[in-house]
Amino acid sequence: MSLRDWFAKKKQKARLNADGVNRKLTDDELCSIWVQCYSCNATLPRKAMEHNQQVCMECEYHFRIGASDRIQQLFCQEDDTFIELNANLGPADPLTFTDTQPYRKRQVGARSKSDLNEAVVTGIAKLHRMQEPNDDAADTPPTIDEAESFALGIMDFDYLGGSMGSVVGEKLTCLAECALKYDLPLVIFSSSGGARMQEGTLSLMQMVKTGTVLARLHDAGLLYISVLTEPTFGGVTASFGTLGDVILAEKGARIGFAGRRVIEQTIRQKLPNDFQTAGYLMKYGQVDRVVHRHNLRHELLELIRLHRISSGKTPKAVSQGQLLDFEVNPSPFLLTPDAEPVPV
Amino acid sequence: MVTLSTPPSKSDITEPVEASQEVTPLPFEQPLVNLQDKIDELASAGDDLSVDMNAELTRLRKQAADVKEKLYSDITPANRLQIARHPQRPNFLELVRAISPNTWIELHGDRGGSDDRAIIGGIGEIDGRPVMLVGTQKGRGMKENLHHNFGMANPEGYRKALRLFQHAEKFNMPIITMIDTPGAYPGMDGEEKGIGQAIAFNIREMARLKVPVISVVLGEASSGGALGIGVANKIYMLEHALYTVISPEGCASILWRSAEHAARAADALKITADDLMAFGIADGKITEPFGGAHHQPKVLANRLQIALKEGLSDLASASGEELVEQRYQKYRHIGAYELVDAE
Ligand SMILES: [Zn+2]
């Protein structure tokens, strides 16, 4: 789905909400107008929450947001652009996996819940710096670095808990390869429960796939900023999530490798309330900064600008046509090994 | 000539269990155990056996052989899991001693204040070639297992491993890693010290190593904890070893809401050596002695040594850049996807 479709859908939803105002509201409709804060229980108008980037006006609790909200928040300047890559890449079912439900059925559910074909959206972003009103500089011409281009990946927890299967690994790897070719900085927003069990060891290996392409990015001297958002766990934490040159954590986000319950069961001890929160991790030196959602866009642009200036790496111009090279054409998955057993 | 070999410390090594030692049967082998008990009972009657009883004994022995044959020809992933976790299964240090009998110099510590005993590393020699050997260590018996934390490493273990990998690279030593771990240790301290980061960093840095890396899965290789020492040019699996994204018990308790469904999860996850070769993840399978490596550890060690020699000579002629490229391409092609119709 393109960015434009997202906005269209968004508007359509808003219209649906507006229609119901003059009659007695059902619970569902009430829920579509009001939200309750998970943290302070305040009842908040949904519209105002949207304006406030889904941050509670009472207690600053950051609601978990999906890829479309994130894109809407980041691409707020008129000329901002996002060219999506691999939008139509979707999951296969290489294990023909069935637990209490077939994996295929879960995919359908995830797709309708998240409005996405998979748990990550990737593409090339161009964000414009907000122009500060400054009387002294009124007649200086605009500087050439008023916009930053970068490769952007955003995970969405609503698609099967943001789990990383083959598609997430592949899309992020293609994105990083594109960044490599065009000297683009890379920014990935993580939100994930970990590796996707329904794709078994293939999911596990996506940790290596993304890790090895980031080795290339590292060797090429390109900037990678990892933004950890609510929640980031397991295989994502243990791969690209923590490989950023700069690691930002969104305020209040829970981030870890093992789940809290698993740790409590293992060590037979209660964990502190703020264990595995963004602030806790910064205290232990695991993330560079805890960032309020309202400042995120600005901090990203500043970091990209500063590293661009000092490294001298300026993104090469890239056309939409050239980006087609990074679209995956999946071949049917074959279960025939081409490797021979080691003779012994 | 001085042989640079130091005997491993007592707490770290045990002799491989030999066939003469009693092998503890596994739950799935129970039908065989029952038959064997009957046979033993009859046989203990000794010379007093009547002709009929002798015939019965022969019949039972034949039946036992058939049952054994069938148990192993119909072996399930859950059965393999029992073999992979057999308390007498050869562990990393036992195999190191067997494949590099004259040389073993353990190198300790992460230089950051710790020496994780769940991951052990050191220099050995295979075929006259110095190699860096790094592995997760499961102990034999409760005391040793506590010492090695059941093969579950903390961040310090992965950081020690990385130090040794980079040491090996500096001196152009091939790296062999051996994996047998239920996963990284899920502790409070580990989270505070960045267990996720430690594994991630090892993955990235292993991808950059300009020396050959061969990884062997000895028993269970579970989750990111395995990958922290598992990024390799070639991955071999012992016949009954398993490589999985999550332990079957963990998977069952999440997806089926009960660990009792572990056998189903083990099956559904497709985690055997054959599965992983079909997915293009594993590059080779090392056949185990009948019934599992614990029946004849020395035979297994011998096969492992042959496989490693072959693997090392395959990779010997590649340049550092070629090795990095080959590793990249190996993982680059792992995965399965489809095109979804545009909405
Ligand atoms: Zn609140």
The dominant shape of chain B is globular
CATH architecture of the largest domain in chain A: Alpha-Beta Complex
- Average residue pLDDT of chain A: 89
Q: Indicate the structural class of chain B.
A: alpha/beta
Spatial order of the strands forming the largest sheet of chain A: 3-5-6-7-8-9-10
Task: Give the cofactors and ligands.
Answer: zinc ion
Which structural class matches the secondary elements of chain A? Answer: alpha/beta
Low-confidence parts of chain A: 332-344
Whole-number total of structural domains of chain A: 2
What is shown here, in short?
The complex is a heterodimer of chains A (344) and B (343). With 344 residues, chain A is α/β, with parallel strands linked by helices.
Task: Using brief descriptors, characterize the structure shown.
heterodimer, A: 344 residues, alpha/beta, 2-enoyl-CoA Hydratase, Chain A, domain 1, two-stranded antiparallel ribbon, B: 343 residues, 8-stranded mixed beta sheet, 9 strands, disordered N terminus, binds zinc ion
Question: What does the model show?
Answer:
The complex is a heterodimer of chains A (344) and B (343). By secondary structure, chain A is α/β, with parallel strands linked by helices. Chain A has two domains: 22-60, no CATH class; 62-335, Alpha-Beta Complex (2-enoyl-CoA Hydratase, Chain A, domain 1), CATH 3.90.226.10. Helix content of chain A is 37%, strand content 16%. Chain A is built from twelve helices and ten strands. Mean pLDDT of chain A is 89; it is low at 332-344. Chain B contains 14 helices and nine strands. In chain B, 45% of the residues lie in helices and 15% in strands. In chain B, strands 1, 2, 3, 4, 5, 6, 7 and 8 form an eight-stranded mixed β-sheet that branches. Chain B has 343 residues and is an alpha/beta fold. Residues 1-15 of chain B have low confidence and may be disordered. Chain B folds into two domains: 23-74; 79-332, 2-enoyl-CoA Hydratase, Chain A, domain 1, CATH 3.90.226.10. Chain B has helices spanning 30-43, 51-73, 77-84, 92-99, 141-147, 155-170, 188-192, 195-207, 224-227, 248-256, 262-268, 273-278, 297-316, 320-332, and strands at residues 104-106, 119-126, 129-136, 175-181, 213-222, 234-238, 242-244, 284-286, 337-339. The chains are: A alpha/beta (344), B alpha/beta (343). The interface between A and B is large, with 81 and 76 residues. Strand 4 (89-91) of chain A pairs antiparallel with strand 9 (337-339) of chain B, so a sheet runs across the interface. Residues 37, 39-40, 42, 56, 58-59, 61 of chain A line the site of zinc ion (ZN). Residues 37, 39-40, 42, 56, 58-59, 61 of chain A line the site of zinc ion.
